[in-house]
Amino acid sequence: MKTIFMAAALLTTSAAIAPAWAIDPPPRHLVFDIMRRGSQIGQHTIDIKTEGKVTTVEETTAIDVKVMFVSAYKFNYTAQEVWTDGNFTSFRSQTDDNGKKHTVVVTGGPEKILVQADGKKSDAPKGAIPASFWNTQFTTRKNLIHTENGSILAITVAEVGTEQVQTPGGVKQARHYKLTGGLERDLWFDQTGTPLRFQLKGSDNSIITSEAQQ
Q: Would 167 be classed as within a structural domain?
């Protein structure tokens, strides 16, 4: 199932003459409620910060499925991902899947991508990126790296079309993508490329949906 951060007069002057493209975008904090069978079972957050040419993404996921008020399944995940000048640089995640723990470290490069999953090293195909889905880069890639176990996924991305998605902030137009090939997902992104909804099928065939709060 399943990303950091001159004198006042000089700064003021620089801001006045700097072109718009040179100004870093404001940090974004995205929160998703994870729903299953009408009940919230967890929360997923994505924090995106750009400073100059470097974009850092931090993600957390916490799930606690209860049966008769007793925890039947817990899942905790943290990750940090770095992109430099539009190119993937590095990724690190730690997962506790109901007691089973995983650590994935990925180092990017122009010719070679090194993956270390639970201490085992392997190479990922050129152009592969983590399957983190904080933007739509996945639509242009043939391979993704599973963020929880480091496996290499040969995916197929189909664009279903444009749909309306209800959010707390109102109805938004969204592009719907369907992924197949080792990672089955339905994903919705708004016109700016910001994720609005993630959906997958659980091991018990229940539908699990992450809905944006914004």
A: yes
